Amino acid sequence: MDKRKLELVTDFYEFTMSNGYFAKNMQNIESYFDVFFREIPDNGGYVIFAGLEQIIDYIKNLKFTDEDIDFLKSKNMFSNEFLNYLKNFKFTGTIWSVPEGTVVFPNEPLITVKAPLIEAQLLETTILCLINHQSLIATKSSRIVTAADGRPVMEFGARRAHSVDAAVFGARAAIIGGCVGTSCVLTAKEWNIPASGTMAHSFIQAFDSEYEAFKAYAENYPNDCTLLIDTYDTLNSGIKNAIKVFNEVLVPNGYRPKAVRLDSGDLSYLSKKIRTILDEAGFEDCKICGTNALDEYVITSILDEGAKIDLFGVGENLITAKSNPVFGGVYKLVAIEKDNKIIPKIKVSNNTIKITNPGFKKLYRFYDKSTNKALADVIALHDEIIPEDKYVIFDPLSPWKKKTLTNYTIRPLQETIFDKGNLVYSSPDLDTISQNAKKELDTLWNEVKRIKNPHKYYVDLSQKLWDLKNELLENK
After folding, report:
1. Residue 244 near residue 215, CB atoms below 8 Å
2. Cα separation of 476 and 464, whole Å?
3. Which among 196, 159, 198, 166 has a CA at the least distance from the CA of 181?
4. How far is CA 192 from the centre of its chain?
5. Is it true that domain 144-319 has CATH number 3.20.20.70?
6. Looking at 16-170, which runs of residues are DSSP E strands?
7. 12-137+325-474: what CATH class?
8. Is the Cα dihedral 331, 332, 334, 340 positive or negative?
9. CB of 57 closer than 8 Å to CB of 155
């Protein structure tokens, strides 16, 4: 979809580092980088991975124009040899990734890039930009959908998004997270998803009366009539005029109202009052839609109070992930290859959470054969063979805490996306990705999906990887 050239959507240090590699004749050293995150937003139990389709588009079209080269040359920091290298740049590496919609957890290699050092280095910023944003919004949307407890959720956040891209791709991510439609028309067009929306308060204010506005709307959209009833007085005006129009315009012509929408006030109190009024008027089938600064916490609260809301439109708190708006995905060197030998690399920090897992790795998920529920994930070195009958997992931070898994099936989570520069993966359509996310969530125990204080899902290192990590730490 995105036809723009994004090669300069990167941090300047990607070029200064790459020029430094080139100066030392390191550009052809084979390198391995992992994309992962350290903490789950909102202290949640899981993350939904999203943004891979846009990464594929970016890498497929990645090249530097004469205009790009002239700009970099104007900085007087880069050698002519390096700039000539960029003129002929083409990605030749191999990339593995978990598919979009996969449920993932901290420190897991979501994407692994194996490529000549400069090629891999130059991908960092844009990959993180795409993954961090869409994974954040997909995860936030999933939490809101979970809180809605089976009631449809529509994404209504375009006007509050941080940019046009945030609106368009954020809406895409919201669909992956479980939303049923979006107010963003471009997203609806590009990915063939439902466009949601009826009227704003301005439509009602533009007419001489609320009744005339409702009547005009019902006459134009008799088979899809949703009326916004809180412009003036929800109980003493809005719902009364809505019912009058239902009876005068819709019912005589064989139509039924779709919904009324509440966009202000106490949604719990008002929805219960409106439900009673609609039922007594013979419109038991008319839905009540709630909007207005909602998120998973507000939705949980009003539903606990017995709110009679049938569907939700969620805007600013979803599209900005307002309660925790930063997804801390990182891109770290984990190995280089010399003389056909993989040499693991580790980043050490006084902050324990920032110590990386070294080496070229694979990610596996264990499922209980009897329930198909996910038991644990294991990060292992790429050449390890995982036994199919019995496996001992342990907490990497507290290795004495052990558990023996039996009666399981194993699934490698990453798939090959690019192989030696060639795209070998076909991106599924958005509906398939959304269904994949739903299936993935169904494999998690409800305790992991709790909005507050979720159970921590097990992500462990293999014994071989744990030993390697400790060996590197001891030798630093």
Report:
1. no
2. 19
3. 196
4. 18
5. yes
6. 30-37, 47-48, 94-97, 103-104, 111-116, 153-155
7. alpha beta
8. positive
9. no
CA angle 42, 45, 49 (to 5 degrees): 85
Looking at residue 217, its amino acid is Y
Annotate 409-432 with b (16+ C-beta within 10 A) or e (fewer): eeeebbeebbeeeeeebebbebee
Specify the length of the chain in residues.
476
pLDDT in tens, the chain (476 residues): 566 788 999 999 999 999 999 999 999 999 999 999 999 999 999 999 999 999 999 999 999 999 999 999 999 999 999 999 999 999 999 999 999 999 999 999 999 999 999 999 999 999 999 999 999 999 999 999 999 999 999 999 999 999 999 999 999 999 999 999 999 999 999 999 999 999 999 999 999 999 999 999 999 999 999 999 999 999 999 999 999 999 999 999 999 999 999 999 999 999 999 999 999 999 999 999 999 999 999 999 999 999 999 999 999 999 999 999 999 999 999 999 999 999 999 999 888 889 999 999 999 999 999 999 999 999 999 999 999 999 999 988 888 999 999 999 999 999 999 999 999 999 999 999 999 999 999 999 999 999 999 999 999 999 999 999 999 999 87
- Give me 238's structure tokens: 């809005």
| CA-based nearest residue to 379, from 148, 123, 67, 104 | 104
Structure tokens at 231: 């412009």
Distance CA 100, CA 433 (A): 6
Tokens linked to 149: 């407890």
How would you classify the pairing of strands 181-182 and 153-155?
A: parallel
Please, where in the chain does CATH 3.20.20.70 lie? Answer: 144-319
Nearest to 75 by CA among 142, 12, 119: 12
> Of 276, 270, 322, which Cα lies nearest the Cα of 291?
270
Nearest alpha carbon to residue 413 among 368, 378, 463: 378
